[in-house]
Structure formats: C-alpha cells, structure tokens
Amino acid sequence: METITKETAQDEIQNFNEYQEVVKALQPYIESARTGDGKVMRSAFYDHAHIFGSMNGEYVNNTADEFGEAIGTFGSSDNVKHHIAWIDISGPAAAAKVEFIDWLGFRFTDFFVLYKKDGQWKISGKVYDSHAKN
Asked: pLDDT digits over 97-130, tens only?
C-alpha cells in the first residue's frame, strides 16, 4: 500500500488547482462560442497569439485580434455544446483539447496552448479543425 506523504498530498492539491485555473482560462472562449462575443473571446488570448485552422477545408490564419473580430460577426450559437477532452500541464505550460458540437452548425476540435505568466493562464495559440456540418 502506497503511503501518501505530505509533499505528495500538496502536489496533488496544486495539480488540481492548476487544472481548475486552466479550465477557468478557457471559459471566456467557451462562453463566446455561445454568445458570439468576440471581445470576450479575445480576452482569453495573449496579444501575440495566433489561430490556425481549417474551415470548410480552407486554411485559416488569424491573429487574436482578427479572430475576435471574426467571432463577433458570426452571432450567437445558442445550441452549442462543448467538452474539454483533456488538459495537460507542465509547470507554467499547458495544452488542452476542447470539442464543440453545433457551433453555428459545425463541429470543431480545438487544440490550445496556454502559458501562465504573472499568476494568470492565457491562451498563447490555437489550432483547430472544423468538421463537416452537423
């Protein structure tokens, strides 16, 4: 039987807390999928962030500002659902996979890279795929 040391218990609490902080950092993005609020979505990203992906089979390359503006033009998507498939954290670096269904009729798979600077997690970059329309 494994004995849980004080350090191990503290590490587990810290890991749990960091996981929750990454989830919290993704929330503006996730909420904006429903509301179509590009300004809120933009707030989830660092200024240097880039977004690359495929929309209807076409390559898309946006800055965080361009992406936020585009999201703001799409409008709300009241029926969108999401699932955080996984989060992996190593010190101040993290990666996350989030699946969306029925975001303006599309299914999306988003891969995020996040970084914790000055105690705050933000998205540093995103790559994504838009699947066939639902």
From this structure: 999 999 988 999 999 999 999 999 999 999 999 9
Residue 91 phi, psi (nearest 5): 60, -125
Find the radius of gyration of the CA atoms of the chain: 16
Q: CA 88 from chain center: how many Å? A: 12
d(CA 19, CA 27): 13
Token couple for 84: 């955080």
**Cβ of 56: how many Cβ atoms within 10 Å?**
9
In angstroms, rounded to a whole number, what is the distance separating the alpha carbons of residues 87 and 74? 28
Selection from 125, 110, 133, 90 nearest residue 33 by Cα: 110
Q: What are the phi and psi torsion angles at 43 (to 5°)? A: -65, -20
DSSP E strand boundaries for 1-134: 45-55, 58-63, 81-90, 93-103, 106-117, 120-130
End-to-end CA distance of the chain: 49
- Please tell me whether residue 106 adopts helix, strand or coil conformation: strand
Q: Which domains does the chain have, with CATH numbers?
A: 6-130 (3.10.450.50)
Predicted TM-score (pTM) of this structure: 0.88
